[in-house]
């Protein structure tokens, strides 16, 4: 439809709704995109459609271990501009590798902390401080008093680029 009408597509949005086998569908879909180098060109960038696609948005994606490792294992740069992690995401070493691979490109980052403070949350903030220097939009949701200093260090580290910041702090009683 887009190709026949010669639409210039700048952004491809993929939303995965809550369906049975959610993670399986997500992993399969992303595997197809990553394994087929010409996926975008074959489906969007034909001769009738100018090659204008510059952004793929994955909306409501659960960053599970398999999904994250698919990105990390790419041989070419993956210019991830936005990363929002919530309590559904599985946190392991692959998140650190994802931040290493795409940290220079990340401009929008958010993290919703789990109910209990864990070492993983501290490690994620430390890795964001180390690898992500170009953040313009920062959203830290339900963070705890114990990681205030890391959050302040992160803000100091990115202050030259930071344009928007959302902080929602949760008091432990």
In short:
This protein has 173 residues and is α/β, with parallel strands linked by helices. 35% of the residues lie in helices and 20% in strands.
Topology:
Blueprint (H helix, E strand, L loop, with lengths): L10 E5 L6 H14 L3 H5 L11 E5 L5 H8 L9 E4 L7 H10 L5 E5 L6 H13 L5 E8 L3 H11 L5 E7 L3
Parallel strand pairs: 1-2, 3-4, 4-5, 5-6
Helix pairs in contact: 1-3, 3-4, 4-5, 5-6
* Count of runs of 4 or more consecutive helical residues: 6
Can you summarize the main beta sheet? 4 strands, parallel
The shape is globular
Give the SSE string.
EHHEHEHEHEHE
Quaternary state of this entry equals: single chain
Low-confidence stretches: 1-7, 40-53
Distance between the termini: 56 Å
CATH class annotation of the largest domain? Alpha Beta
Class by SSE composition = alpha/beta
Beta-strand content bin: 15-25%
Strand arrangement in the largest pleated sheet = 3-4-5-6
- The CATH architecture name of the largest domain reads Alpha-Beta Horseshoe
Share of helix, binned = 25-40%
- Here the CATH topology of the largest domain equals Leucine-rich repeat, LRR (right-handed beta-alpha superhelix)
Number of strands: 6
If you compute it from the alpha carbons, what radius of gyration comes out, rounded to the nearest whole angstrom? 18 Å
User: By CATH's scheme, which homologous superfamily of the largest domain applies?
Assistant: Ribonuclease Inhibitor
**Total domains:** 2
